[in-house]
Design a protein that fits this description.
The protein is an alpha/beta fold and 281 residues long. Helix content is 38%, strand content 18%. InterPro entries: AB_hydrolase_1, AB_hydrolase_fold, AB_hydrolase_sf.
């Protein structure tokens, strides 16, 4: 792991985690919290749902944490044992050191996390960077992943450099720029004020990951033999949804590939779509 500082200040860290704690206080279902030791430091983990049911791991995106799955756990927890870790090096309560995406660190992290939780086989749903991590793990250990849901997935087609440059400019424009950027990422969909305010807080007080997400190779993607869902929005300003869909269809004919009209990087009602995919036979 690098010794890269992810929070801009102690006060910023406290502010971000303070909102996180308030979200946990209003968690819609009973849950447990614990810390799990891995080769890459401690991982903060939320568990909810049915303890005796098959396991589902939810992986959030960059500059985020497990709190962003709050709206989906009630639906998914009815039939799954839901495990939601904070990804190390992101804006949560896990190890704050950040690893390079070109290293094996995040596959190793999931190996250790799954071993500690006794997960011989698991369904994985990932959003954006979390989808990339899910694919990397599933390519390395296809026998351990029963189903793989990829939402606004990074790493299939190149990121849009035009948005990266615009995002840098907007971040220099204060509160207005941060709100404008968040609405662009959301594809113009309505965003609750509390979600908008938390997103802006993280952008202000957290050092975003600047590393370009590496593309998975054809060989890696071809190893995804389990049922796969790729769901992206056609208005995604960060990723080329059309190229991502075309590449995955070509390499994985068995995958379900969906590009939704009028939707951006942030997808609506994710829990319902993930749940339907997981229940398919």
């Amino acid at each position: 792991m690098k010794n890269e500082i992810v929070f801009k200040s102690a006060a910023g860290r406290q502010a971000i985690l303070g909102v996180y704690d308030s979200v946990l206080e209003g968690w819609p279902v009973p849950f447990q919290m614990r810390r799990v030791e891995t080769r890459h430091g401690q991982t903060f983990l939320i568990e909810c749902g049915q303890a005796s049911a098959p396991a589902l791991v939810l992986l959030h995106g960059a500059g985020s944490n497990a709190a962003f799955w709050r709206g989906e756990v009630e639906t998914l927890g009815r039939t799954w044992r839901v495990l939601i870790p904070d990804i190390p090096g992101e804006a949560g309560k896990s190890e704050e050191r950040r690893a390079s995406l070109s290293s094996p660190a995040y596959v190793e992290w999931l190996e250790d996390l799954f071993a500690a939780e006794g997960l011989d086989q698991v369904a994985v749903a990932g959003l954006s960077l979390g989808a990339w991590m899910g694919m990397k793990f599933a390519a390395a250990h296809p026998q351990q992943v029963s189903r793989l849901a990829l939402l606004s997935a990074s790493g299939i087609a190149p990121q849009k450099n035009s948005f990266l440059l615009l995002a840098v400019a907007l971040m220099l424009c204060g509160d207005w720029g941060l709100e404008r950027m968040a609405r662009m990422v959301g594809g113009g969909q309505p965003m609750p004020r509390e979600v908008m305010d938390y997103t802006k807080l993280i952008h202000r007080e957290f050092n975003a990951r600047l590393e370009v997400v590496p593309l998975l190779s054809d060989e890696e993607l071809a190893r995804l033999s389990m049922p796969v869902l790729l769901w992206m929005g056609e208005k995604d300003v960060m990723l080329d949804s059309r190229k991502s869909a075309a590449r995955l269809r070509a390499l994985l004919p068995h995958a379900e590939v969906e590009v939704s009209q009028g939707v951006g990087h942030v997808l609506p009602r994710m829990g319902t779509r993930i749940g339907a995919f997981l229940e398919e036979r």
